[in-house]
Design brief:
The structure holds two protein chains of two kinds.
Chain A: E1 4-15, E2 18-29, E3 33-37, H1 44-52, E4 59-64, E5 67-69, H2 73-76, E6 80-83, H3 95-105, H4 110-123, H5 139-150, E7 157-161, H6 169-184, E8 188-193, H7 196-201, E9 204-209, E10 212-217, H8 219-224, E11 230-234, H9 238-246, E12 251-257, E13 260-265, H10 272-279, E14 286-289, H11 294-302
Chain B: H1 2-20, H2 22-42, E1 50-56, H3 62-72, E2 76-82, H4 85-94, E3 99-103, H5 107-113, E4 118-123, H6 127-134, E5 142-144, E6 147-148, E7 159-164, H7 171-193, H8 195-201, H9 204-208, H10 215-245, H11 253-277, H12 281-298, H13 310-318, H14 320-333, H15 342-362
Helix pairs in contact in B: 2-12, 7-10, 7-11, 7-12, 7-14, 10-11, 11-14, 11-15, 14-15
Classes of the chains: A alpha/beta, B alpha/beta.
């Protein structure tokens, strides 16, 4: 048995001419939360589907829990849980009926089913919802039900595809608490997200953009690597200042954040203030080196800012 | 004016969507085309080429001349000869022939005296067939060129006609079991044709295919509840039909149950196959209707199977409804058992197996 939960080499999937995922190498250790961070269309869902055996890779190899995928996908299915991006349980069944159905599909016995359902309803705070139809539940409740159902058969590996997209921030927080509970019990979790704050909670992270793996590592390390490259600019007329700064060859991107302009440099730079000031004559602006955020990491590694205009 | 602009916008949008839905777009063109060709040639309310048998108890040379004259009417096609009327009746019950012409032992005497020369034993469970053969009753017969039989005596009909299974020629007797076949075809295919499509549209399928479920398990599990629904429909139609229209049930409940379950499962399996082809519930609905109309028109429900051209008969043979139409009329009206109707029973079973196999094969647990 390998120490890695997931290992891929040159994983590639093309749809016609379009390459959805291209040459991705992943090494995901067991017992952690591993995040896929990327905008929509970056290949997160396609990658997850290939890892579950739902899509056949065009090229490359996939090894999940020591099994070759897609050849051994059938055997893998008993050992993984999958929470789809869209709520995939039955709207017209109750919480308990949905759970019982999936439990029977996974071949859990009657006694075990009942015991697991009671445990999970308790753990995910769904006891009062037991006889409620899924259609009549809130986004947060449905998401807890989906997670509870995905863990019925105690999977070793859990795939969560943008699990919190339909959930408010408070429920998101609670949801992540549950994920850490699962990791404590030895589960490996692969979660995709386009929220920076969620990505920051992961043990390790892969940044995907346009089907390419742009960076891989722990959030702290990824942010640390950007030391000396992030500068906050304060002053008047930030929109114009931004355009001026983007003309500098040393500036990779600039984006306004509230009252400040956040500038990412291509290289770590001691005299960043001097360089930036050269583009902003008049001395009205102040410059301050800032701690890199995950968004900066994202921009630095993809060359693209998800929230600001694309830099040429 | 802006109302017209908005109507135009909606119409334009609908047209674009329609042209991108390949199955619907195909139906717009193919449905009238195929139906016109199929039914235009196939549907013929004139009854021809009914398979009949002959029982000759007389050993007379006249039999040959008379049967030849019956044959050239083209209403019937002589396919068998039987030694005794009892043997002939068994063939009638089994549906091998639609009628039997029985020549009595005193044929020569009857010919001489100008009496009724022979008797038709007719399967009256299809009223159109009964009527067609009743039309032969008065046909003039000649033994030698230019000399009609009975020309010198009092005029009597050439044949006597005994209508079996439906002596009063009531159409309800024919229609009630046929309606069971049509209703089951419609509802059973419809139920399952949307079954997988609905799961796909609601996003349930993506979860389901990551579980250990085998496609065949999924297919059979999806079928089972509807078998019960189909049996309920059958009980309503035949039960109420018997009471309201006094259609007497001749056969055994066991055989009725066997053939019905086979037919229900065959249709459900066909529905599942449609479900693996259609991408939306709308498409599934259209494919169901595509199968339904031939089942109504070609199965023998509206027009006798034998009256159709051979090519249309081949198409009819593929449809489960054709086989069930024979089975249910046989079991319900003629008191046949499933052994006597074995070819149709076997066909339904084979059809189910083939449909399930294709549907299972088409339903892969991937999103490729």
């Amino acid at each position: 048995m390998t120490e890695l939960a997931i290992c891929t080499r040159q994983l590639t999937r093309r749809f016609g001419d379009a390459t959805a995922v291209g040459g991705v190498d992943l090494n995901i250790a067991r017992g952690q939360i591993y995040g896929f961070l990327g905008p929509n269309g970056s290949g997160k869902t396609t990658t997850i589907r290939m890892l579950c055996g739902l899509l056949t890779p065009t090229e490359g190899s996939v090894d999940v829990l020591g099994m070759r995928i897609p050849d051994e996908a059938e055997a893998l299915r008993r050992r993984i849980g999958y929470m789809t991006q869209k709520f995939a349980l039955y709207d017209d069944l109750t919480v308990e009926e949905n759970m019982r159905f999936i439990s029977r599909i996974f071949g859990l016995g009657r006694a075990q089913t009942t015991q697991r359902i009671n445990e999970l309803l308790e753990h995910y705070d769904l006891v009062a919802m037991r006889r409620r139809r899924a259609a009549d539940m809130s986004g947060g409740q449905r998401q807890r039900l989906a997670l509870a159902t995905a863990t019925l058969h105690r999977p070793e590996l859990l795939f969560l595809d943008e699990p919190t997209s339909a959930v408010d921030p408070e429920n998101r927080r609670a949801f992540w608490e549950k994920l850490f509970d699962l990791v404590d019990q030895g589960t490996t979790i692969l979660v995709s997200t386009h929220y920076m704050d969620e990505a920051e909670r992961c043990h390790e992270l892969a940044i995907l953009n346009l089907g390419q793996l742009c960076a891989q590592g722990s959030p702290a390390r990824l942010m640390h690597q950007l030391g000396g490259r992030v500068v906050e600019v304060h002053g008047p007329k930030l929109r114009q200042a931004k355009d001026a700064l983007l003309q500098l060859p040393q500036v990779q991107s600039a984006a306004q954040q509230g009252l400040a302009l956040r500038v990412l440099l291509r290289e770590p730079c001691q005299d960043a203030a001097t360089i930036l000031a050269s583009a902003l004559p008049g001395g009205e602006h102040s410059f301050e080196e800032a701690r890199a955020s995950l968004e900066d990491v994202f921009v630095a590694s993809t060359g693209d800012n998800p929230h600001a205009e694309r830099h040429q | 004016m802006s109302a017209i602009a908005r109507i135009g916008a909606v119409a334009d949008k609908e047209f674009r969507q329609l042209s991108r839905d390949r199955i619907t777009f195909g139906m717009v063109v193919m449905l009238p085309l195929i139906y016109l060709l199929l039914f235009g040639y196939a549907i013929n309310p004139m009854v021809r080429d009914l398979p009949i048998g002959i029982v000759d108890l007389s050993g007379s040379a006249a039999v040959r001349a008379i049967t030849e004259q019956v044959r050239v009417t083209q209403v019937v096609d002589i396919v068998a000869t039987y030694a005794t009327p009892a043997e002939a009746e068994a063939a009638l019950i089994a549906g091998e022939v639609r009628a039997v012409l029985v020549f009595p032992h005193n044929l020569t005497q009857r010919l001489a005296s100008g009496d009724v020369v022979a008797q038709w034993m007719v399967d009256g469970s299809d009223t159109m067939i009964g009527n067609a053969l009743l039309g032969l009753r008065e046909m003039p017969l000649q033994l030698e060129a230019g000399v009609p039989v009975g020309a010198y005596g009092p005029r009597k009909p050439s044949f006597e006609v005994a209508l079996f299974f439906n002596p009063e020629r009531r159409s309800a007797v024919n229609i009630v079991p046929g309606l069971a076949a049509i209703t089951l075809t419609m509802t059973m295919i419809l139920f399952t044709s949307v079954a997988l499509v609905r799961e796909r549209e609601h996003g349930n399928l993506e979860l389901l295919i990551t579980t250990p479920i085998h496609p065949l398990e999924l297919m059979i599990g999806k079928l089972l509840p509807y078998v019960l629904a189909g049996l309920v429909q059958l009980v309503i139609i035949l039960g109420l039909g018997s009471v309201l229209f006094s259609v007497a049930f001749q056969g055994s409940l066991v055989h009725l149950g066997v053939v019905t379950v086979l037919f229900i499962v065959a249709n459900l399996a066909l529905g599942l196959l449609i479900s693996t082809i259609a991408q939306t519930q709308m498409q599934a609905m259209q494919l169901t209707i595509f199968v339904l109309l031939p089942s109504v028109l070609l199965s023998g429900f509206m027009f006798p199977y034998e009256a159709m051209p051979v090519a249309a008969q081949y198409i009819a043979e593929v449809l489960p409804a054709t086989h069930f139409m024979r089975l249910i009329r046989g079991v319900f009206l003629r008191g046949a058992d499933s052994m006597q109707l074995l070819p149709d029973v076997l066909w339904l079973a084979a059809f189910t197996a083939i449909m399930l196999a294709i549907a299972t094969h088409r339903f892969t647990k991937t999103l490729d």
